Amino acid sequence: MTQQYEVFLGCAIPNRFNNYESSMRLVAKELDIELLDFDGASCCGTVVLKSIDENNWLGLSGRNIALAENRNHDIVTPCNGCYGSLRDVDHLLHEDESYREFLNETLSEVGLEYKGSSKILHFVEVLYELKDTIREKIVHRLDGLRVAFHPGCHLIRPSTVAGFDDPELPRKVDELIELTGAKSVPWNLKLRCCGSPLLIASEQVATDILREKMQSAIEAGANCVVTNCPACHTQFDVQVLGLKNDEGESLELPALFVTQVLGAAMGLDSELLGFDLNRVPLDDISNILGI
Known about the structure:
By secondary structure, this protein is α/β, with parallel strands linked by helices. It has two domains: 3-122, Glutathione S-transferase Yfyf (Class Pi), Chain A, domain 2 (Up-down Bundle), CATH 1.20.1050; 138-289, 3-Layer(aba) Sandwich (Rossmann fold), CATH 3.40.50.11810. It is built from 14 helices and eight strands. The strands form two sheets. A four-stranded parallel beta sheet has the order 2-1-3-4. It has a four-stranded parallel beta sheet with strand order 6-5-7-8, with helices on both faces. Helix 4 packs across helix 6 and helix 7 crosses helix 10.
């Protein structure tokens, strides 16, 4: 049975990571998930805006949620930042009547109302619910792929907000990865921030954090990093280029999106999975991926 969702791509994915969008759409089609283009969507508001102007942050995310509700659809997003912002606002509006009244007074000017009827899901949550179907779709096992999976902060934090209180979500993505025959290796800094949010404040601090993360992944025996977040992917596939440890050894590892891993194992078109758009060379794992 086809599942329908309004797909909220956010700003970064369509502008910087076409391989994430393309691989997500390809995997979704294979799993009979219908991703409806989110007509009228704006920026989610981002957690950055929340720290500057909470009312505008509330209005932007609240309007997006109300648009989906007006069309009787749930929202799915592949972006951790958008997921964090939308889930946080949805939680706040459910819990606090004064915020709902403020938002709906504003939304009334454009003929919308927030009711709280739409679910906000990360794409990996949708995938996990279809894990049995994914298992049946595996035609190319990725034996030998040793993954350092990085879930990213906004998939699981803050834990006090409804929707982020599933401590098993990173493990569930590990489980999805391992359906392919790959191994999701345990690594000490798995849940630590990648440093991406600090790029606008101090590239040096962000790089130092990334260096520690990469060292931890390599010491754990990983031969690639896998993410489900475009901001985190910026660190692992862009900022990492040329990064070395104190001994001058490269800290680069191929960086993949979780949808690329699943798509490769399903035998989907490698061109449409966007491997040619990954910045760190995939040479060391290309045979495993079948590309």
